[in-house]
Amino acid sequence: LYYFFKPLLPILESILNNTPVTYFILIGLSEYPRAQAIFFCLLLVCYLVILLGNVLILFLIHYDSRLHTPMYFFLSNLSFLDICYTSASVPQMIINCLVTIPIISLGECLVQMCASLYLGVVECLLLAIMAYDRCIAIGDPLRYSVRMGPQLCAQLAGAAWVSAFLLTVIPTLTTPLEFCGHHIINHFSCELLAVIKLACNDLRYNEYFMMASSFLTLLLPFAFILASYGRILRAVLKMHSTKGRKKAFSTCSSHLTVVIIFYGTAISMYMMPQDKASRDQDKIISMVYLVVTPMLNPLIYSLRNKDVKGALQKLLGEKNVP
User: Fold this and answer.
1) Which is the most buried residue in 70, 98, 172, 253, by most CB within 10 A?
2) Where are the transmembrane segments (predicted)?
3) Considering its fold, how many domains does the chain have in total?
4) What is the CATH number for 119?
């Protein structure tokens, strides 16, 4: 993923050519060697689960024609996004656990920051689109295939990817940060809030824009998701089948739990008052939306799904045929 964003490096270097700082030191857990070893093992396992789970989902959706529906189109987008989102920083974090003094260049740090921020915003918008899709499917099932046609699905997914780029990468390039000497980041990766605390220029404009952007990408999508699930709840309560109602409640509650964890931690980070000092709890909170929710997404959204289980059984059954 770094090489995908690598074309931004010349632009960032031209913007930051007067900045005396050329590298950052990511201390993370450097002061706690034993905790660093445990963190390495946990992070490696989580990353492998994220990769294997999401790659499996992408393969099954492509393999089984029964999964070529709007719901699974958005799920495939989410799986691809989670692979990219975690790959933007987690591999570097794993490597840093094996290094005594983890160092990253200024340009690479800012590219990592832009990539993580961009993909995180895409996930915020995509989860809202997926809630809308489920709202239409349960609230208006007879017209679902008409209202959620292939063209609209592609437009909604494309809008999420393009809007996130306009809300994150473009402002980052147009409002550069200046670093005068502090180069120690108390974090596992180049998290936006951890990096911006080291800047020495006036950040009032950045803070205003961050609040406005957080409102558009966090609060509004989260409110929209809650409203969508409110409509879903009303539709479920009108069902006559107790079994169908119980199944819908189970599915929606699982989805909503993951959404609340993801948005709750992100909102607590980006919409709460910040000070110049880095806090250790910020590192823990960031791990929740960076690692935990991408690991839960394939388990909650897909692998518990009857259709996905059927596609997996079909695949395994065909491979076992002599």
Assistant:
1) 70
2) 37-62, 83-104, 110-132, 152-173, 208-227, 248-272, 284-303
3) 1
4) 1.20.1070.10
Query: How far is Cα 163 from Cα 217, in angstroms, rounded to an integer?
Result: 10
* Tens digits of residue pLDDT in 55-66: 988 998 888 888
Number of CB atoms found within 10 A of residue 234's CB: 11
Among 36-45, 126-135, 245-254, name the one with the lowest average pLDDT. 245-254
Does the pLDDT at position 294 exceed 70? yes
Phi, then psi, of 287 in degrees rounded to 5: -65, -25
Per DSSP, 23 falls in state E
The encoded tokens of residue 145 equal 């295939």
How deeply is 36 buried, as exposed, middle or buried, from its count of CB atoms within 10 A (0-12, 13-18, 19+)? middle
Residue 283 belongs to what domain range?
2-320
Residue 250 C-alpha from the chain's centroid: 23
Contact between 53 and 9 (Cβ < 8 Å) = no
Q: Edge-to-edge strand order for the sheet containing 103-105?
A: 103-105, 23-26, 184-185
Tell me how crowded residue 192 is: count the other CB atoms within 10 A of its CB: 20
What's the rounded Cα separation, in Å, for the pair 313 and 37? 37
